[in-house]
Amino acid sequence: MPDLFSPYTLKGVTLRNRIAMSPMTMYRSVDGKMGDFHVMLMGSRAAGGFGLVFPEQIAILPDGRTSTGCAGIWDDSQMEGLSRVTAIVKDMGAVPAIQLGHTGRKGSEKKPWHGKTQLPADDPNGWQVRAPSPVPYGGRYTYPVAELSIPEIHDIHRAYADAARRALDCGFEWLEMHFAHGYLGASFLSPLANQRTDAYGGSLENRLRFHREALDAVRAVWPERLPLTMRLGSDDFNEQGTQFDDAVWAIGEMKQHGLDFADISLGLNTDAMKDVPFGEVGFMVERAARVRREVGIPVGVSWNLGIPAVADRVIRQELVDVVFLGRPALANPHWPVWAARELAQNDPFALIPEDWAWWLRSRPGPEGSLGWPSVTKT
What we know:
Number of helices: 12
Mean pLDDT: 96
Shape: globular
Number of strands: 13
Largest sheet: 8 strands, parallel, barrel
Strand order of the largest sheet: 3-4-6-9-10-11-12-13
Number of domains: 1
Radius of gyration: 20 Å
CATH topology: TIM Barrel
Order of helices and strands: EEEHEEHEEEHEHHHEHEHEHEHHH
Low-confidence stretches: none
Helix content: 25-40%
Oligomer: single chain
C-alpha cells in the first residue's frame, strides 16, 4: 500500500514522494524572465522535501501571461532563468516540473495587491485579450475580448510545441498543460465562454478539439519517457458551463492523445458558481478518484489538502496518486518534513539533503531546540 512518502514512478521519472509544490503565480518576473527570487523559492521547496516542484504557470506567448510581472517561455532569452531553476531543484533531490499555459480572456491584470482588475489594451501594462469567443468574463474582467481565428488557434498550438522544446532544453522532466481556472484551455471547453459555430465550438467533441490538438503538438516534441500531464477545469459549478461528466469523457479522449496524468481542478469560467464547497477539506478528491477509476489514468489534485493526515489518507486509499500543495508550500518550505514528523515517520529528515539531515539527526538537543514545533498529540 502506498503512502504520502512512497516513491512514485510515471513513465521514466521517479518522484521521491507523492508531494508536489503546485504552480503559483508570484508576479516577480521581468520581461518574462525568472531570477534569483525564483531560484530561491523553488530551490528551498526542493530542499524542504517536496518530490515534484513547479514554478508558476509559464506563458507560451506574451499575451498568455496574467500580468507583465509573470514568467514566460516564448523567447530563448527566458531559458537561462528557467535552467537555473531546474538545476537547483535537481540538486536538492526533487523533479523539476513546468506548467505551460495561456490566460486567454483572464489576462492583462494588475497585480493582486494592486486590485487584480483587468487593464485595457492601450495601458502600458495591458494588452488585447483573446479567447474562443468575444465574450468578456465579467466581474473585474470588463474589456472587449478578441475572438481567435482558426489560423491564430494553430499559431497557439505551435507556440505550445515551441515552449515544450525550450522546456526540455531547460531541464524540465514533467510537463503540465494548464487547461483550468478560466484560462484559454478552460474557456474552449466551457459553453459559457465558447460560443463558436465552427470546428472548435458547439458540441463537446468540438470544444475539446483545442485540447487534443495542443496535446498532439506537444507530444510530437516532448519525449515519451517524460510525463505529459494536464490540469483540467473539470466543473464550472454552473448549469450552463462545463459539467463534471463532460470532463470525465474529455480526459478519456485526451488519454488517447498522449496524456499520461490528469490534475483535476475547477473550471472557474464564471463568478456565478453555485454550491462550491471551498471550505471543505479535500473537496476535489472524490472527483479525481472517479477519473482514476473510470478512465484508468493516474491523477493528482489540490484544494485544501494541507493537513498531513488527510494528504496521507487519500494516497493510502489510492484515491489519488500525487497531492498538490499550493499555499501550504508557500507557508512552510519544509512541509514534507513537518508532515513526516506529524505522521510518525521513522526518519523525517531523510526527505532533505544529506548534509542538512546529518546535522539535524546528530545534534538533536532538548525538545524544541531545533525550532520545530512539537508533534501534535492525538
